[in-house]
Amino acid sequence: MLVGLALATVKAAAFTAWAIFIHATWRFVWGHETPDRLGQSTFGRGMHILTQHEHFTAGAIVAIVAVVVAAVMFFLIYRGKRWPYLVVAVGSLAAIVPAWIVRSQVWDTERAMSRSTAWAARSPYVMIATVIALAITIYFAVLAIAATVAWLTSRRDDA
After folding, report:
1. In this predicted structure, what is the pLDDT of residue 138?
2. Are the beta carbons of 46 and 106 closer than 8 angstroms?
3. Which of 13, 60, 75, 129 is buried most, with the most CB atoms less than 10 Å from its CB?
């Protein structure tokens, strides 16, 4: 359980730091006008484009707060407290929502850019976003289940 929480915290912190760096340094241009487009994978280009979304800054702030809270919960669990397990379980379930919001933003962007629902349905960006959202859902659901089991089975005298 602690390893899962630690991995999620480190990955979220690294991804958020990378996204903030890209947001601050990448010059976004639509279409094939981006000078470094040929050097980017579909995943890399999609992640670059997502960092230019209008709600990116708010999402980055929420991610930073979530990383800090997760680190505090890790420390409290390590110190033998019981109640942080419940916070981790609820927080893990809440962490699933942003992945699907981002996936819907990718879908909306692809549909708007192509003006075709059929294209959006087979877009590589939508496919990658769906796979990532599913992986995040599975990871955090397992973490929530582990935290709930740990909360239910931990000793009750953690004052």
Report:
1. 93
2. yes
3. 129
Cα separation of 110 and 46, whole Å?
A: 11
For CA atoms 75, 76, 81, 82, give the dihedral sign. Answer: negative
Share of the chain above pLDDT 70, in %: 82
Q: What are 38-45's contacts with CB under 8 Å, separation 24+?
A: 42/124, 42/125, 42/128, 43/128
Q: Is 67 exposed, middle or buried (0-12, 13-18, 19+ CB in 10 A)?
A: buried
As a whole number of angstroms, the distance between CA 29 and CA 40 comes to 14
Give tens-digit pLDDT for 60-71.
888 888 888 888
Taking only the tens place, the pLDDT of each residue in 108-139 is 878 877 787 888 888 888 888 899 899 989 99
Query: What gap in Å lies between CA 159 and CA 61, rounded to an integer?
Result: 32
Give the residue extent of every domain in the chain. Answer: 2-153
Distance of CA 3 to the CA centre of its chain: 18
The answer to whether the CB of 48 falls within 8 A of the CB of 28 is yes
C-alpha distances in angstroms, 90 versus 94, 102, 135, 145?
A: 6, 20, 18, 10
